[in-house]
TrEMBL record:
One term of GO molecular function: tRNA-2-methylthio-N(6)-dimethylallyladenosine(37) synthase activity
Cofactor binding note from Swiss-Prot or TrEMBL: Binds 2 [4Fe-4S] clusters. One cluster is coordinated with 3 cysteines and an exchangeable S-adenosyl-L-methionine.
Gene this protein is translated from: miaB
Segments forming domain MTTase N-terminal: 5-119
Name under which the protein is recorded: tRNA-2-methylthio-N(6)-dimethylallyladenosine synthase
Segments forming domain Radical SAM core: 141-368
Compartment(s) where it occurs, according to its Swiss-Prot or TrEMBL record: Cytoplasm
Domain TRAM: 371-432
Cofactor dependency: [4Fe-4S] cluster
Amino acids binding [4Fe-4S] cluster 2: 155, 159, 162
Binding site for [4Fe-4S] cluster 1: 14, 50, 82
EC number: 2.8.4.3
Upper classification of the organism: Bacteria, Pseudomonadati, Pseudomonadota, Alphaproteobacteria, Sphingomonadales
EC supergroup of this enzyme: transferase
Organism annotation: Sphingomonas arvum
Keyword list, A-Z: 4Fe-4S, Cytoplasm, Iron, Iron-sulfur, Metal-binding, S-adenosyl-L-methionine, Transferase, tRNA processing
Amino acid sequence: MTAPKTFRIKSFGCQMNVYDGERMAELLGDTGMTAAPDGADADLVVLNTCHIREKAAEKAYSDVGRLTREDGTKPIVALAGCVAQAEGAEAQRRSKLIDLVVGPQAYHRLPHMVAEAAAGRRSVDTDMPAISKFDALPARRRSGPSAFLSVQEGCDKFCTYCVVPYTRGAEISRSFAQIVAEAEELVAGGARELTLLGQNVNAWEADGHDLASLIRHLATFGELERIRYTTSHPVNMGDALIQAHADVAKLTPYLHLPVQSGSDPILRAMNRSHAVDSYLATIARVREARPDIAISGDFIVGFPGETEADFEATLAIVDTVRYASAFSFKYSPRPGTPAATMAGQVAPEVMDDRLQRLQACISQHSTAFNASCVGRTVPVLIEKKGRKPGQMIGKSPYLQSVFLDTAAPTGTIVHARLTHALPNSLGGEEVTLAAAA
Ligand code: 5AD
Ligand code: SF4
């Protein structure tokens, strides 16, 4: 195989994987490779996989199988992300097409592993090294208006359904100085909004700072307009962070706070370390601090032992919280997790039925939330061109997509009066600030 010149990275799963994919692209770019244009063959394909649900490994192997070209040749194939971490060396035993396997904590070694692959040598690296990959990654140079910034990785909470503690390892926080340096690079490269990422982002703490004080520091950056963070765990939703929602203007009124179930027995079986009441009390405090905040969540239906009454309690908590948006999933047994072998696994048709009912309930609330915004004037961060001439698409502070006609370029904030709500977005009209006031 000759040295590859072009690459394609396909990221699945969470925003952390999107971030990791960007960092891998930057690393490969520094070796002189370029991203393959859409539709063109790439010399290297990186599958940046997710292991959270369903037949993740099987899907990854079938994606690998499809990379063989019509003439029988194939690109260099890299299996990255959480399936790579979970499968390790087994991946190359199962598929001879995979040249290298690299885990989420080891991808700073990707360029070296690609060079090895080009020389005909296969490699596996799923180390969770003592030296953080972040020390070995290049500086950020360019950024779109909205950028992800990983501040925390891994999880020590061990929810009984979840693979993350195994694929991403123990909770680690990046240093304050390193995060601030990367934030400065991203803002200098064009970012106007930063989303701080972590599997338990609100557990971040380093060098005497907690997430609230990190946010307060970043809010002093003149050109940075908005700060977001995701995903939070209810038990780490401390007073300081809630207070930041009250008095940091750049912190957006949006909180993703998964509860997973509205039933205490199920929350206990999930090892969630919070109850329905304590979760609702946290939501109430957040709403007191920031009355207009949009709350979003994650739910699992059909966890082992979930009865119809447990499920109805989940519908009830959705009605109580009135989520602005929420994601819901059928429970999927993950190899090696405690819940996979629990008694009372729920039949697939029962899960299908519950998922449908839950999604109908969530959609009522998200539609109502969007409808309640019509008539309001909100700042919109312009992110890209729309499909119609003159149209641009941006985000409201509540993370809604907003379509509007404007001459404002990407990366600017315009004020828009929201005129109509569609199922997953809103239409708006640009207004001048005087009219908005
Ligand atoms: N089955 C179904 N959903 C899951 N999630 C995590 N693990 C599983 C699983 N085994 C969901 C949770 C989590 C989101 C990222 O994925 O709702 O918050
Ligand atoms: Fe998927 Fe979790 Fe890995 Fe993200 S961290 S890619 S959600 S398994």
